[in-house]
């Protein structure tokens, strides 16, 4: 199946009538009035933009600018997920896997590990209070709190250093 057309179909299904009208308005210098009147759906608009070579599989810049203009940043992310998104997803998967390994292999001395990661005693006690009688969940919640605290610097390599 053609990924480009699948993407256009997916985007078209998420646009409402008002957003379509806004996009058409933004295209009024590119599409002649007679053809503009024939556009009744986002797919019609995308077909017309393809004919005019405003959008193509190799160049989605104009589509991205339209989606940004109508404030559909969620759809912009579908069009241009970018390498950073892929890296973040891969790193998040790796750290989740590391958390599971730690939870499976660290026993009663898990608090020492969490302290070396920099979580406060108050945070540790709060996690224990919220998860009584479940040591694995206490450890997992502490690791999740560490990830929230470290934000972008919470990586497997930074976890390994501790």
Automatic annotation (TrEMBL):
Xref: SUPFAM superfamilies: DEATH domain (SSF47986)
Coiled-coil ranges from the UniProt annotation: none
Domain Death: 95-162
Domain DED: 3-81
Domain of life: Eukaryota
InterPro entries from the UniProt entry: DEATH-like_dom_sf, Death_dom, DED_dom, FADD
Protein name: FADD
Source organism of the structure: Ranitomeya imitator
Lineage of origin: Eukaryota, Metazoa, Chordata, Craniata, Vertebrata
């Amino acid at each position: 199946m053609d990924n480009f057309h699948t993407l256009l179909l997916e985007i078209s299904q998420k646009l409402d009538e008002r957003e379509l009208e806004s996009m058409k308005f933004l295209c009024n210098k590119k599409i002649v009035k007679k053809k503009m009147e024939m556009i009744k759906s986002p797919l019609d608009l995308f077909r017309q933009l393809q004919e005019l070579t405003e959008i193509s599989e190799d160049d989605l810049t104009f589509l991205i600018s339209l989606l940004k203009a109508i404030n559909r940043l969620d759809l912009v992310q579908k069009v241009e997920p970018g390498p950073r998104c892929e890296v973040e997803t891969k790193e998040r998967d790796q750290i989740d896997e590391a958390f599971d390994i730690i939870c499976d292999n660290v026993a009663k001395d898990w608090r020492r590990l969490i302290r070396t990661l920099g979580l406060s005693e108050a945070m540790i006690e709060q996690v224990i209070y919220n998860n009584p009688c479940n040591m694995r969940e206490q450890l997992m919640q502490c690791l999740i709190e560490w990830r929230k605290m470290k934000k972008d610097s919470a990586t497997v390599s930074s976890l390994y250093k501790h």
